[in-house]
Design a protein that fits this description.
Low-confidence stretches: 1-17, 24-39
CATH class: Mainly Alpha
Mean pLDDT: 87
Number of strands: 0
Radius of gyration: 18 Å
CATH superfamily: Phosphatidic acid phosphatase type 2/haloperoxidase
CATH topology: Vanadium-containing Chloroperoxidase, domain 1
Helix content: 55-70%
Order of helices and strands: HHHHHHHHHHHH
Distance between the termini: 47 Å
Number of helices: 12
Length: about 280
């Protein structure tokens, strides 16, 4: 297996691990059938990752003001079924490495693929390993039931396994905001756009009906804590430089142009609140 294949496999395995923790209906298959622990990339922080027991508050109680607001938002957003925003939320449910990159294409201004961004893919895979530890720990601790188990309404994806996975915090929101912050630092000229897309990626989970708004807020908090801590790692900083050079080269080459109509349609949904 060549270096690029190892990078793509590592990225796929990291996302698969996160997919399990997030309770995805389907997890993406890696590029190779073997899933040896040796192929799973190590995180940058290991035991030095932020402790969610300290920085992350518990989810709001159902009878509290925040708890009632969470349920009200779930109910009010069921009217979005069948709309363009609903379709975006359904697409955002995928956590495959390629789909995650593609989601930020319009914001970046060019199509992003795993084959064109091996350094960024490796960076993402390693940060996901750190995220898995934090998100999984919190989900196991709180075991918050998802909103569709409390109230009826359409859901944008299959819920076969979601009911067995804790709702708090949202793993997707963690991923979306973490990706947004990483790309905002790597391509500051597109920082506002990629952060907006990262925000919407988390909101898609509420639109989809599989998370509460407070789950999404907790995901962003988790991502912010992790992103800050990652900068203490020299390996992370080195990989950020490599990924930045990779993206700069893509911008200079002006290849992989995005579909203007598709981006216009995405932006029409991106810059308005779904509730």
């Amino acid at each position: 297996m060549n270096k690029l294949s190892r990078v793509r496999l590592a990225a796929g395995l990291a996302i698969c691990g996160l997919a399990v923790l997030m309770g995805c209906a389907t997890a993406p298959a890696p590029d190779a059938p073997a899933q040896s622990p040796a192929d799973f990339p190590s995180g940058y922080l290991g035991a030095g990752a932020p402790d969610e027991r300290i920085f992350l508050p518990p989810p709001p109680a159902d009878p509290s003001i925040a708890g009632r607001a969470d349920l009200a938002i779930f109910k009010s957003t069921r009217v979005l079924a069948g709309t363009a925003r609903w379709d975006m939320a359904a697409h955002d449910a995928s956590v495959s490495p390629q789909d995650l990159l593609a989601d930020f294409g319009c914001a970046f201004g060019a199509t992003l693929t795993t084959s064109d961004t091996p350094a960024l893919s490796r960076l993402s895979a390693r940060t996901m390993s750190d995220a898995v530890r934090i998100v999984g720990s919190a989900k196991d601790r709180y075991q918050r039931a998802r909103p569709f188990l409390r109230a009826k309404g359409p859901i944008c994806i299959a819920t076969d396994d979601l009911g067995r996975s804790g709702s708090y915090p949202s793993g997707h929101a963690t991923v979306g905001w973490l990706y947004g912050m990483i790309l905002a630092e790597l391509v500051p000229d597109h920082a506002s756009e990629v952060l907006a897309r990262g925000r919407a990626y988390g909101e898609s989970r509420v639109v989809c009906g599989v998370h509460y708004q407070s789950d999404v807020e907790a995901g962003r908090t988790t991502a912010a804590a992790l992103f800050a801590a990652l900068h203490s790692s020299q390996a992370f900083q080195t990989d950020m430089i490599a990924a930045g050079a990779e993206l700069s080269a893509l911008q200079a080459a002006k290849t992989g142009s995005v579909d203007p109509k598709a981006c216009e349609a995405e932006n029409a949904e991106l810059f308005k609140s779904p509730w």
